[in-house]
Every structure is written in C-alpha cells, then in structure tokens.
Design brief:
The complex is a heterodimer of chains A (about 270) and B (about 325).
Chain A lengths: L1 E5 L2 E3 L8 E2 L4 E2 L5 E3 L1 H13 L1 E2 L2 E5 L2 E8 L4 H10 L3 E6 L7 H15 L3 E5 L10 H9 L3 E10 L4 E8 L2 E8 L2 E5 L9 E2 L18 H7 L4 E5 L11 E7 L8 E3 L2 H11 L4
Parallel strand pairs in A: 1-8, 1-10, 8-9, 9-16, 10-14, 11-14, 11-15
Antiparallel strand pairs in A: 2-5, 3-4, 6-7, 11-12, 12-13
Helix pairs in contact in A: 2-5, 3-4
Chain B lengths: L3 E4 L2 E2 L2 E2 L2 H16 L3 E6 L7 H4 L6 E5 L9 H12 L4 E5 L2 H13 L3 E6 L1 E5 L2 E8 L4 E7 L4 E5 L15 E4 L11 E8 L12 E5 L7 H12 L2 E4 L1 H5 L20 E5 L5 H4 L7 E5 L13 E3 L3 H16 L1
Parallel strand pairs in B: 1-4, 1-6, 4-5, 5-12, 6-11, 7-11, 14-15, 14-16, 16-17, 17-18
Antiparallel strand pairs in B: 2-3, 8-9, 9-10
Chain lengths: ~270, ~325
C-alpha cells in the first residue's frame, strides 16, 4: 500500500498561550517549531498500515510525507523520514502564499504525481484549527473521506474498516480505496491500527514511535524532493482573507477555597449556580 | 442580497440543538444582509420534522427525505447540500462533528471559501466578517470569505438557541443524489452512547475528569454528576488512557462546552483542554497540585485529593439543594 501523509509544522502547541496577538497578526516568534501533533499521529498510522507489527524493520509499503513551506521545513521532513517514512516532498512556498484551499488544491496535484492508494492526515492543524484540508482534498479528488478516525483495520481485502467519532457515538464504515482518512489522537493507541499481516492480537506501544539514532543518520540518505508551488499549475487566489486578530477575553482571577463546604456555599450564594 | 441556507443537524430522528444556534446566526446575519433564510433537512423520515423546523421564521423548509440518506455518509449528504446551496449566498452548518465533516466538502463543491467554527460575526457594509478561534482559543481571527458563495460552521456555545417565532414555513421537497465516491463507502453501524445524562454540548453543568482518576473514572464522577444533573466530560489524557470514552473529550480537538458550571476534577489544565471549556460561566477546579494551570482559569479552586473531595462534594451538594 502506498500512503501519502501531508504534514505541517506549527508553533509549539504546548505554549500556544504565549502567542502574541496584535491587531494585524499572530506573532509566534520565540516559539519552537513542532510537527502538528495530529500529523505525527497520521504518520504513525501510515507506518503501522505499511508494516507487520511484529517486524517493523521490514517495510511492506511506502509512506511519502509532503509539506509546504520554506527550506527550514526540511528539518521537520527529515524527522518524519527518521521515524520511518520512506520519501519526502517539500513544496517550496511561504506561509502567506497558502491557505487551506490552496494547500488542498496543491495536494490534489501531488496525489496525481505520487499516486497513493490512501491519504492519511491529521484532522486539523493546531494553529489555525480550521479542520478543512482533508475534506476539500477528498472532494477535489472525487475520493471518499473518513474524518475523525480512531481505528483503521485492513483485513487484506481492498477495503479498510474504519471507526470514526460522530456526535454522541462512534460510526463504523468500510471504505474501498482510494480514500482520504483524517485522524484523531486515539489512532495511536496500542491496537487502533492493524495492517493485513499484523496479527489481531498484536499491541503496539501507545503513542508515536521515536527515531533511534542510526535512523536519524539514515534519514539523511532518504529521498527528499523539492517542488515549486508555481509549477503545480493551480489557482492560488485565496478564498478567505483575515482582516485582524484579537486576544481572547481575560478571565478575572479566581479564589482558592479551603473546604468543600466553603466551595458549596460560594457556588450557592455567590455564583448562584446550585 | 442573497439568502442564507441553514442545514439542520438531525440525529436519530431528532433535531439537534446545535441547529437552533445555527438558526440564530442565520436570523441575525440575514438582517445584516437584508435577505431571509431557509432550512434544509436531510434524512429518512425528516419530512415529519418540517413543522418543527418551520416555526423559526424561515421562508422555506427544504426536505430531502429519502432512503438514500438514511445514515450519515458524507458522500451522500454533501451533494444534496451543494445542489440546494448553490442558490444561496451563505450556506450554514453546525460546528458539530458531522457539520465539520460536511461543511468543507460542500464548500469544495461550491468553489466556496469556508469560515470554520465561528463564534461571532459583524456586518460590514453588507458583507459578513466572521470571528473564529485559533491557536486553541488563544487568538481570534476576523475573516471574510471572498467567493460568491460562503460556507460557514457555527459554534453552538456562542450563539443562543433560537426560540420558535411561530408561523409555518413553506415546505418544499428536494431530490437526493450521491457522489460516485459514495459507492466506496459502506455504512456498517452507528453505536450511540446511551446515557441518561444530558448531552455534553448542551448541559448546564459539566463534571469533567482527568487521567488521575484512573479506572474508577465513572464510579467517582457519576454520583456527583447525577446529583447536579450534569453531563460528564473528560480530558484528552483520560480518553487516551481509555478511562473515558472518546466522545466525552473536552478541548481544542474534542467537544467545546460553555455550561453555567464546569467542574474540573483532577485535570491539570493543558492548553488544549482550556480551549474547550474557557467559555464556561463558572469554573471550579479540584486538584491536589496547587500549581496546576487549571487554577489560573478557575473561579473557585480547591486544593484537595479528588478521591476524598468528590464524595464529600456530592453529599454537600445534595444537602445544599435540599
């Protein structure tokens, strides 16, 4: 199976409260670049689908990661290659040239070139929080989309059985490839993803895998292709415009109570919520 | 000006309350645009909901009632919305799981830009400017959609549910069609989480727990939640560890809640969790770690071990409520 995983770097989400919001922009200077967590989960899911869980050294498929951005994004791509991805593509572009729709159009072109059986990607990036690229991409390709996936199993046939989160419950679907799947964090739980050769009883370690040192060295030799956004021949007119930004409203400082009884008194008489 | 189309969210034959928030947006936005709004209902048997949906002042209720849309499959719903939506200026969906799944696909079909998960808007000379949270709620952007048709999803917690205004909208049947890609998708099952408790997104009180409660998650929280008539929520860590079902996750990438009272039990307060509950009116944090970041957003903080505090609180709340 050939899988394409789109990948974005974001300002350190653990410190998202340190972004500086001015009227004109959101300043992330001083925050480290990190891979979008949901994209890391997507890579982990893609790797699990292209290996036997009991022998992860032997690759049984191909995972290509693709990102959009300046040359410094190569470092993020090398990180993905070190964890096990086979190939990488960077579409050279600056952030102000891109929005979700442009990225989806560009990805549709990359899909034409790479010809994957499946696109696996994070359900959203945690900077813009838009949750849209996978859905746009699926429509541009005319492929089915399965969003918010928490489990993907391949029994060896041409279809995948996917569990996705719905409102008030979970939905089970069977999807015949090619398709776009966007993933939740639970996709990296120990038994969430199962490739055809992986025994049903196999349990992975929870979470995403880390690259051992030799793999980091080897990753430097894996193919990393650079393409130009302009060469993809897509419409790059932005569909939306951000006019201004503002910080969230501040909450007034709270108080510490000493006992449960004091808490209940405050809730009843001060906040009047009981 | 162009009219607005609201896509109702219907689950198991019932109009989800999130739809009423989307109607509130449509009512206000149609005033700013100087037009009206219609409502689209999709699903098998939804024709019988036309009366209920027709009481909110919409010009028309469009009904796509067909066995082909019995279960929610994106590739069967999106073409129905897009076919109806091309006659409108703004197509509105709920920012629920299914709404977020559907809206961008509809937008792609309509060559439209998309304003996701909006929490507010203003009319600027006949043009809508949308407000939406970014960076886990640590920034808000004001944005416009520059395409002839605009697609929007509305965050339920930021628009009050619409009250019926009386009257009856005209009912019009619309045909259904499916994407070719629908042939690749076989719906197997929807497993609803049956609960006697209120819906997380709609509850007035939410009791939410963290990973530190461990296996006894429900045993510890249920008596307090039931005493308060509350919904139960959970941190991402509690869900990831399997202590709580994933549908209960509150946060940037889970459910966004804004109840009258939010009680965070053993939750440290990671940024992505705060994004899902910071809009709550009164926040209580109970955590034995006095340095937990959750205390920075809490109106009332109690530094105590949750395993002693929660049973005690349950008893005290019972007494206080008489």
């Amino acid at each position: 199976m050939k899988i394409l995983v789109p990948f974005k770097r974001v300002a350190d989400p653990e410190n998202a409260n340190k972004v500086k919001v001015t009227g004109a922009k959101i300043e992330t200077a001083g925050l480290e670049w990190k891979p979008n967590p949901f994209d890391e989960y997507a890579i982990e899911a893609a790797l699990r689908l292209t290996e036997n869980g009991t022998n992860t050294k032997a690759r049984l498929g191909e995972v290509t990661v693709v990102t959009f951005g300046p040359a410094e994004c190569d470092q993020t791509l090398r990180g993905a290659l070190a964890t096990g991805a086979d190939k990488a593509i960077r579409v050279d572009a600056t952030d102000d040239q891109l929005d979700g729709v442009i990225v989806a159009r560009a990805l549709a072109k990359i899909v034409e070139q790479v010809k994957p059986d499946l696109v696996v990607m994070g359900k959203q990036t945690v900077d813009s929080d838009s949750n849209q690229v996978g859905q746009y991409l699926a429509e541009f390709l005319g492929w089915p989309q399965i969003t918010f996936a928490i489990s993907v199993k391949n029994d060896g046939g041409p279809a995948l059985e996917v569990v996705r989160v719905g409102d008030g419950g979970v939905q089970k679907v069977k999807v015949t490839l090619p398709a776009v799947i966007t993933v939740e964090d639970r996709i990296v739980n120990s038994a969430s993803v199962q490739s055809a050769p992986t025994p049903a009883t196999h349990k992975y370690q929870d979470g995403v895998r880390f690259a051992p040192l030799p793999a980091i060295m080897q990753a430097k030799k894996k193919p990393l292709e650079v393409k130009k956004l302009a060469d993809l021949g897509i419409d790059t007119t932005p569909a939306v415009k951000y006019q201004s930004y503002e910080p969230p409203p501040a909450r007034k400082a709270g108080v510490k109570v000493k006992t449960v009884q004091e808490l209940v008194d405050k809730l009843k008489n001060e906040a009047k919520v009981l | 000006m162009a009219d607005i189309l609201v896509v109702a969210e219907i689950v198991e034959g019932q109009v989800k309350k999130a739809t009423l928030s989307a109607i509130t947006f449509a009512r206000e936005a149609s005033k700013a645009l100087g037009g009206g709004f219609d409502i689209l209902a999709i699903g098998l048997g939804v024709e019988k909901l036309a009366g209920e949906l027709g009481a909110f002042g919409a010009k028309k209720v469009l009904v796509a009632d067909d066995a082909g849309v019995k279960d929610y499959v994106t590739e069967r719903f999106a073409p129905v919305v897009a076919a109806a939506g091309k006659a409108y200026g703004v197509v509105v969906m709920t920012a629920t799981t299914n709404g977020k799944d559907l809206a961008p696909r509809v937008a792609a079909k309509l060559n439209a830009g998309y304003a996701p998960d909006i929490t507010g808007f203003k009319g600027d000379g006949g043009k809508l400017v949308y407000k939406r949270p970014m960076y886990a709620g640590n920034a808000f952007g004001w944005m416009t959609v520059e395409t002839p048709i605009q697609v929007v999803s509305v965050r339920q917690t930021d628009f009050a549910p619409a009250e019926p205004s009386g009257g009856a909208s005209a009912v019009e049947k619309v045909a259904v069609s499916a994407d070719k890609a629908a042939e690749q998708v076989q719906f197997l099952a929807f497993e609803m989480v049956k609960s006697e408790r209120p819906d997380l997104a709609e509850a007035k009180v939410v009791v939410s727990g963290g990973r530190s409660i461990k296996e006894k998650f429900m045993d510890v929280l249920a008596p307090l939640a039931d005493t308060l008539g509350a919904a139960i929520g959970a941190s991402r860590a509690a869900c990831d560890a399997g202590y709580a079902p994933v549908e209960l996750q509150v946060g940037q990438t889970g459910k966004v809640v804004a109840p009258q009272l939010y009680i965070a039990v053993g939750i440290s307060g990671a940024i992505q969790h705060l994004a899902g509950m910071k809009g709550s009116k009164t926040i209580v944090a109970i955590n034995k770690d006095p340095e937990a970041p959750i205390f920075q957003v809490a109106d009332y903080g109690l530094v105590q071990d949750l395993f002693t505090a929660i049973p005690e609180l349950t008893t005290a709340v019972k007494a206080a409520k008489g």
